[in-house]
Amino acid sequence: MPLDHRRLRGPEESQPxxxxxxxxxxxxxxxxxxxEKAAVGGADAAPRDPCALxxxxxxxxxxxxxxxxxYVELGGGTKVLCAAWGxxxxxxxxxxxxxGQLLCEFRRAPFAGRGARWRPGSAAEREAERExxxxxxxxxxxxxxxxxxxxxxxxxxxxxLQDGGSALAAAISAAALALADAGVEMYDLAVGCxxxxxxxxxxxxxxxxxxxxxxxxxxRLTVALLPALNQVSAVLGGGQGGPPDAWAQALRLGLDxxxxxxPVLRQSLLRAARRRDATA
Length: 280
Fold this sequence. Notes:
Layout: H1 18-21, H2 31-41, E1 56-60, E2 68-74, E3 79-88, E4 101-108, H3 123-140, E5 153-162, H4 167-181, E6 191-197, E7 205-207, H5 211-215, E8 219-226, E9 231-239, H6 244-279
Parallel strand pairs: 4-5
Antiparallel strand pairs: 1-2, 2-3, 3-5, 6-7, 6-8, 8-9
Helix pairs in contact: 3-4, 4-6
């Protein structure tokens, strides 16, 4: 019989996957759920400090096909890649009579989520992407000097590569970095910080929650701040956050988180400018 060279031949001998479960390489049934519960703060897991910020990695100027780009990764596993383009002529002639426009796009990669939370291309995913794009525009518009670009449009596109929690906050920071890397005039960098409140009467607010913490949260909040101006550009969220004092406490905690993240984003932008000058 002739061989089918279009396919890869499998090994001569193979072992069932149960063989490797004893060595800990394949989780047993129910083990994954137990690990997820422990990560949220089970009996065997050390409680996380609500005011502590997970590690953040940011780098600007990655994509050569875009005028500006940025990549932001959070310690919980969230990865966002953003691209920005400078002033362009509006697509519609009617839009040329107005001031500058900021167009924002937010997309989730098909492999971004864990489990079957959203199916790629589903109506729920498209609606979530539209809401995230509108929130992204609301947070970025106060930071961009649109009056300097009359009858023109600016565009920024955010791609969520992996959703490990606090995705919108990471996208806000990455999009602001990409716009600044593109040379767009801005008042300040918009810094995003997310919070979630654990369920229960005594639930506490937590900075930059992970995806399991967000899923079990009774309330969520995303704050966008212009730190140099000390101006809030957007406050997005909802849920059962308790009395008004609890929401005020969450807002103060989020603003403090934005101020602490700001030096990391600013240094990544300065490093990108130095690399550009060195290669010029």
